[in-house]
Design brief:
Blueprint lengths: L6 H25 L22 H12 L2 E6 L2 E6 L2 H10 L11 H6 L13 H14 L2 H6 L1 H21 L5 H18 L11 H13 L4 H4 L5 H5 L2 H24 L11 H10 L9 H25 L2
Antiparallel strand pairs: 1-2
Length: 315
């Protein structure tokens, strides 16, 4: 037993164990029929090859390595597919193999433990919240019912452009379109505008910060053993603070709606629909308050990012 505590013996055991583990991983990797992969660096893998314009870097890599290739982004092996035909095959015939997303630090803190549609693990909960979104919130009839919201916000935008034109002032069309899109989404979700021209709306500011943080770099996501760096850099403390502020606003909105005896007293937005389904026992799962908040954020997040990509095309 005393030999086990000998520093030399312990060092030798650790060294041998490391070699064995490395050889096993190498042997397993050699047996896999993996797609081609660009040369990678130790620890960071292929992160350095993404550059400041990742979409263009990936395009250039696909021209060199083909329409499907493998990258190592820190700790995460990442399959890159740039062929429409291959994407269709993956989504149609191999959808279950690719149905889960990796755990993301920002989603854990900002989306109530990754319980929104975009980040929730594949399973019964995900299927049910997706059903709620598709059947109850985003069906054709429901989308048409919000036509007046879109019309009103477009009219507001046109008036702003006309006013600036008369005065001979320049405008930031991308920013104005984002305000339009965000207000359309927020009015559909909970009947309130969250953006103002001066950017002083608190909820609008918090929402923009949430979406920015969801797309920010996290040490813990790329290198799990460096998760403590997210605390030192202020990434996690910032998300905790924002989450608390958003939570207070959502709690207030939900309590105001639940205080109404009849949800028909106000225009039917997503929040009212979900709360009425919950009250009437028409949901197949028990949604907690946090689940409802995540669902509302998820609905807005998906549409917000879609409009954001559209505005980038104008640049």
């Amino acid at each position: 037993m005393e030999l086990l505590y000998n520093p030399l013996i312990l060092s030798l055991l650790i060294f041998v164990s490391t070699i064995v583990i490395w050889l096993n991983k190498r042997a397993k990797g050699a047996k896999l029929n993996l797609p081609p992969s660009p040369p990678k660096l130790p620890i960071i893998g292929n992160i350095h090859q993404l550059g400041r314009l990742p979409h263009r870097s990936l395009r250039d890599l696909s021209r060199k390595y083909g329409s499907i290739f493998l990258m190592q982004l820190g700790h995460n092996p990442t399959l890159v597919v740039s062929s429409a035909e291959l994407v269709r095959d993956i989504l149609k015939n191999h959808d279950l193999a690719f149905s889960n997303r990796p755990r993301v630090t920002a989603a854990e803190f900002l989306l109530y433990g990754s319980t929104d549609i975009g980040y929730a693990p594949y399973g019964e909960y995900w299927r049910q919240v997706r059903k709620i979104s598709v059947v109850e919130l985003l069906n054709v009839q429901r989308v048409h019912s919000f036509q007046f919201v879109r019309d009103e916000e477009v009219q507001v935008l046109i008036k702003k452009i006309r006013h600036a034109s008369v005065k001979g002032e320049s405008i930031n069309l991308s920013k104005m379109l984002m305000v339009l899109a965000t207000n359309v989404i927020s009015r559909c979700v909970f009947s309130k505008k969250i953006e103002e021209d001066n950017g002083n709306n608190k909820f609008g500011q918090l929402t923009r910060r949430i979406y920015a943080l969801l797309m920010s770099f996290s040490f813990g996501d790329m290198f799990p053993y460096l998760k403590w760096m997210d605390v030192l850099t202020g990434y996690i403390p910032t998300m905790k603070a924002i989450s608390r502020e958003v939570d207070v606003i959502f709690d207030q909105l939900i309590e105001e709606r639940r205080a109404l005896k009849n949800f028909e007293e106000i225009k039917r937005d997503f929040l009212s629909i979900i709360l009425q389904l919950q009250r009437d026992g028409l949901l197949e799962i028990d949604l907690t308050g946090d689940n409802i908040k995540a669902l509302l954020l998820s609905t807005g997040k998906s549409l917000f990012m879609f409009f954001q990509y559209l505005t980038y095309l104008l640049r």
